[in-house]
Amino acid sequence: MLSSDEWAVVALSLKVALASVLASAPLALACAWLLARKTFPGKTLLDATVHLPLVLPPVVIGYALLVLFGKQGPIGGWLHAWFGVSFAFRWTGAALAAAVMGFPLMVRAMRLAIEAVPERLEWAARTLGASRVRVFATVTLPLAVPGIVVGVLLAFARSLGEFGATITFVSNIPGETQTLPLAIYGLTQSPGADAAILRLCAVSVALSMAALAASEWISRRLRGRGPAGNTREGIVA
Amino acid sequence: MIEVDFDTTFGGAGRVQANATVTDGRRSPARISARFTSQARVLALFGRSGSGKSTVINVVAGLVHADRGVVKVDGEILLDTARGIALPVERRGVGYVFQDGLLFPHMSVRQNLMYGATRGHRQPVRESGQGSVSFDEVVSLLGLERLLEQRAPTLSGGEKQRVAIGRALLSRPRLLLMDEPLASLDSGRRSEILRLIERVRDEFGLRIIYVSHSIGEVSRLADDVVLMNEGTAIACGSVEDVFSRPDLRPYTGRFEGGVLIEARAVRQDLAHVMTTYAFDGGELVAPGVDTPVGARVRMRIRARDVALATVRPQGLSIRNVLPGVVRAIEDRGGAIVEVHVTVGAETRPESVTTALPERELLSRITRQAMLEMNLSAGQPVFALIKAIAFDKRSMGFTA
Question: N or C: which end of chain B has fewer CB within 10 A?
């Protein structure tokens, strides 16, 4: 059905999306917790910054990434010099662009999930001698898990569709940065590729639907067991 | 010894609005200040809702910030703003039983109970020095054996509160804070949990601060009481003194007027299922023989249950007839007056040898009766109290 080139595009898209959510989830969780539970100077600024990718033109984000994370950029140059990590025109750059674009969605879902955990339950845990870290790990996190999973899956679906920032930042290099949307865009530029375009569009629809369905299924499954009814034993033991 | 002295103001940016009673729609006072010390084993914080009681124990627990103040428990400083000391909540060694239990919904009963028991750094704190509180001991005291593997959300209100008490006990606190633990229960569950709290008090020997707006609970459980009104602690003293002080009646008297006496069971009449109690104003009989002879009880005598006679009545069903003298009559101009009667001046039985002043009772009668009887201060009278006026709710054991 799909040619091997097309399979490679699908595999690259999944790899980019997976890397982007795995790398950004811990940071998103930290941001969500800060926004949900803490009051500090600059909170509004952090909130606005997190949401920026949602409202800015993707090309602006892509350009900003190019300037900041390019080989000569202040952050990119430093990362390359010290860790040998580079983003420019590599699949890691595509993952970075996808992570930035999906970040607001992930933080939003996680923040709502944390806010839904009654703060007084956390108080009860602290009066029982649990440190803040233990309270987070044993009370807040398990109770917020459904929302956190939903946030990750939403960001994953969003990553699969990321286009503007990616093409601006890392261009459209087959086998390296050419994810599904970029491949489709490339095909639309050449005549007679209608069948291939349709095939890739169908794959794209299927993947997005699967991600959304999984998110719905997981959240329903976790919520269905009562308030945060995951039955994992040994949380405290 | 519990020493508390603090001021705090609500509404500042970034401070949690922590008063648990806020949900009932009342706003808690903007400024809370409290100052009291007590040696009591059970100290009650008493006042109407919104008076700042919960805030006081939240400050003690470290859940609410105090602008200025000191909190000490048995010499250990939990908070001293002048010296920059404010122990974090988890290191204060306080157990907290919340009004709504606040069990962890994603855990089983056993996991809830063990949550605070697993920390390593806290030494067992138990006055009697018999070692740490054991899991089995707590489980059997609170009757939790059959609930252990159940999930917390499946429990009933009374069961939740029992688990919450057990969970707090197993964290081996030096001080147990209880914020209206009976408020969300029906009356049957209430007396059951109240009995359990009495047993916890007696068997685990730890200090308790008990928040309540029920005069019945306070008089049953507490030794000392702090009276809260509009964010300020206005009085602190023994339960009997505070609830008998006339100047505090506006704050305590919204609840039925009456006096609280401490008595000791001296005789049981098994044939008639009656028990005789001695107090410093004489002797009283009450139905039931479930109080062992020698046990001390606290009895509440409601003003409406006390009738008066100028001569010793004959052929009467009322069992308790106490001779006394009218000390004062409170006449606010309505249909009902309150008569203060001093009893026990000459009739003190030998079984009570303490040198306490004679006891005052409060009687609520109609003005019509007062006029017909020609009552006035200094007049000898007989105070009549039906034996069945002492029910389970108005009596409690004191340890």
Answer: N
Same domain, B305 and B230: no
Based on the structure, what is the number of domains in chain A? 1
**Residue A178, in any domain of the structure:** yes
* Residues above pLDDT 70, as percent of chain A: 94
Across the interface, which of B20, B106, B114 has its CB nearest the CB of A143?
Answer: B106
A193, burial (CB in 10 Å: exposed 0-12, middle 13-18, buried 19+): middle
> Do the domain assignments include residue A208?
yes
Same domain, B222 and B134: yes
Which 8-state DSSP code applies to residue A136?
A: I
pLDDT classification of B348: cutoffs 50, 70, 90: very low
Residue B29 confidence (pLDDT) = 55
Task: Provide the domain count of chain B.
Answer: 2
Query: B226, B252, B278 — which closes off a domain?
Result: B252
Query: Do residues B67 and B184 make contact, with C-beta atoms less than 8 angstroms apart?
Result: no
Q: Which among A126, A142, A227 has the least Cβ separation from residue B90?
A: A126
Contacts of B104 in chain A (CB under 8 A): 121, 124-125, 139
Q: Do A39 and B119 touch (CB under 8 A)?
A: no
| Nearest residue to B54 via CA among B24, B86, B88 | B24
At A176, which CATH number?
A: 1.10.3720.10
For residue A106, the distance in angstroms to the closest alpha carbon of chain B comes to: 23
Query: Of chain B residues 51-110, which have a CB less than 8 A from chain A?
Result: 61, 63, 88-92, 94-96, 98, 102, 104-107
User: pLDDT digits over A34-65, tens only?
Assistant: 999 998 999 999 999 999 999 999 999 999 99
Cβ neighbours of B107 in A, within 8 Å: 235-236
Contact A163, A58 (CB under 8 A): yes
A77-86, A148-157, A208-217, range with greatest mean pLDDT: A148-157
Question: What's the N-to-C CA distance of chain B in angstroms?
Answer: 17
Range of the domain at A66: 4-224
Mean pLDDT of B321-346: 84
Q: Give a yes or no: residue A235 inside a domain.
A: no
Strand order through the sheet with B68-73: B85-86, B76-80, B68-73, B2-9, B31-38, B232-238, B224-229, B42-46, B207-212, B175-179, B94-97
ipTM over 0.95: no
pLDDT of residue B240: 80
Cβ count near B274 (within 10 Å): 16
Count CA atoms within 13 Å of residue A149 on its CB side.
20
Cα–Cα distance measured from residue B118 to residue B140, given in angstroms and rounded to the nearest whole number: 19
Residues of chain B with pLDDT > 70, as a percent, come to: 84
First to last CA, chain A: 51
Residue B344 lies in domain = 258-397
Burial A19-37 (b: 16+ CB within 10 A, else e): bbbeebbeebbebbbbbbb
Joined together, the tokens standing for residue B83 give: 């010296």
Confidence of residue B354 (pLDDT cuts 50, 70, 90): very low
B46 & B187 share domain: yes
Do B199 and B331 belong together in one domain?
Answer: no
Collapsing DSSP to helix, strand or coil, B11 comes out as coil
* Residues B333 and B380 reside in one and the same domain: yes
B16 within 8 A of B55, measured Cβ to Cβ: no
